[in-house]
């Protein structure tokens, strides 16, 4: 039982990493008043771009960098649609997801369509800290991006949003853009910046799957993690630390169902029940927490300067 719990905790942090990265990116966007439903597509495209560049260049670092840059570009594209043109945010986000999905599948077939086996690359290796310790060794055996996510990116997001002037601008734009504009602050500039940061983090979450965990790219690599990230943002009430906890809940449930499958337990439930378990838990948590959610007042509302 001790070994099971230790491995479960270790797997929880690994599985949660892409979800937390994407959810923190969505938090930036929604705090600025923009619901970015393109998150699933940005993660998908980021996973592919990272894999493609790493495969062709031989550099995992370059692959990760290009994945993040692709997320920033498409975050700005979301800004062009919703901030500059004032297009409906639901339509814009879904359109970006469809665009990314189609573009990714087309490009994948262009480069790898003729292969009989799925392409793969050597992935980033875990950091073996205290590897001789039977308890802390497996738990601390994580990828460097996992450490960066939980020890830097999440605390930094909290500090930026609640302790800096830039974070105050983001939250103010998401609550009362008219007042921000009256104070001489550019609402479009703040929203563009938040979407760029958010897009980069979403793409990094997708690249984590292809460059760290799998060392490969498959058509179902994201598997709805982007939509789960949106639910987790609501569950966390748009607070980075609570969003991280929501990501850990999903990651822990996902890791648990993988462990139960690996153990081969003969339970009187269908196999698909295990696959659905993390998403069911996410829905239940969202229903419970959504009742008291404090949505940013200007979320989904386009702003036009009079």
From TrEMBL:
Signal peptide positions on this chain: none
Principal location: membrane
Keyword Transmembrane helix among UniProt keywords: yes
The keyword Transmembrane is assigned to this record: yes
Membrane topology type: Multi-pass membrane protein
GO terms for cellular component: plasma membrane
A GO MF term: transmembrane transporter activity
Intracellular or extracellular location(s): Cell membrane
Residues passing through the membrane, by range: 32-53, 60-85, 91-112, 144-162, 192-214, 226-256, 276-300
Keywords for the protein's UniProt record, in alphabetical order: Cell membrane, Membrane, Transmembrane, Transmembrane helix
Protein name: ABC transporter permease
